[in-house]
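Shipment paperwork, digital attachment
Item: protein structure file
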Amino acid sequence: MLIILKKIHRLLYFISVLFFFSLSFPILYFLSKNPIKHYSAIVWFRKWISILSVHLVGIRFKIHYEEPIDWSIPYIICPNHTSILDITALTYLCPQEFSFVGKVELLKNPVTRIFFKSIDIPVNRTSKISAFKAFKRATELLKEGKSVVIFPEGKIDEEYPPKLHSFKAGAFKMALENHTPILPVVIHNAWEILFDDGARFGSKPGVIHISVLKPINYHPSQSQKYDSIEMEVYEKMKKVWNQGH
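Attachment content:
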């Protein structure tokens, strides 16, 4: 009986997303014709479609900060990834304009397609050319003062309950090349509310807890290598992840 209720809740969540997306689509379609000019407006719509959709089905967020964050500067934001709700979690916590780097398959999704054709950055991880183009576009956004969200694990793993998996190098190479601070984010229990896309276990109302850790800055004088930053970020996030479980 419980799993049936959770499957119904998942269905209601997707209906909620489609409802708010459909209301916004005519304006989004117009804005997406000139994404450079209308970048801020598209970001705004993405944020509120996401937040209103989860609130309608009883999902909330609570953010815990290791220290106050200076949101006036761009970051490479690195969250763990266990749920499609992680996207909404990031739009909720981040007051900045930012773009996601995500798998190219999101271009096929009826909701995410318009964002990944305008403000977000699709990448085919099996293609070096695609990865290079994504890296270049993300670098351009950082230079414009916008932040970039990269899930360093690369994907949602099928293992359940999930754990923090090893990181890909892209975010940390980008941090070094652009002298941009990494902002580690641990999303603790989104997987308990809705694991992956919810197909296996459904979803339920609840509060998702998010820990925003102290930014890790690039120091040119220390001749840092990207793998040392990668390990530092991984160990800090793993410690906080383990404390929450």
